[in-house]
Amino acid sequence: MRRYLGYILLILLAFSACSKNKTELSTAEKLARADELYASKKYTKAALLYDEISFERKSASTAYATLRLADSYYAVNKFAEAQLKYQQFIDGFPDHQNVPDAYFRIGQCLFEESLKPDYDQDETAASIEAFRSFIDRFPQDSRYAQAVEYIRRAQYKLIEKKYFNGYIYYRMKDYSAALMYFDEVIALGNTDNLDKMSLYYSSLLHLHQDNQEAARASFDRLNSRYPGSQEARKLAKKF
Question: How far apart are CA 236 and CA 239, in angstroms?
Fold first, then answer.
């Protein structure tokens, strides 16, 4: 009886193995299915298959799947995960023709992950460095102008952060610290709302410190750059 049970068990195991081999997809089949899902914008499902392929031995399929996996994460706003996979693609396949795409996407991921200007701006600063690296490595790439625009937008967020820092210190009545940040914004020489408001608060702060000469200088610059503005009219009453 035990011998017959052993035979039956072997037959069942063999049948199970055959069934598994029949249903298991090959790498090419997985890749085709993943591409179908990706084309249908079913990015989360596509990512599962691309992830499986990306763990296989390095090959053309592995490189492609790793990049597509990163693209799938990017498409569903999983920017941290996408950035990690783009970096893995660069590290694993440094000579691949799509490496410029990965560098550009890393910059985009960092920019998208960056917080509003009144919060920490580490990702914003990192995105600037990432796009500068892209420009340095691939100066002839067609996305050069886009990278420059991303840098400009990120740099403006850093200026906004300086302004918010100044305003916070102004509200805290730490006038010296507030002036330091407002002066940094003013020194950039931009003609925009941040510059206007920095000049306005700079004038008020100098008045609080009873520094009439510095207050007048800030007011004159404000009135010269933004004549007729509400801020200039308010300050004019104080002189």
Answer: 6
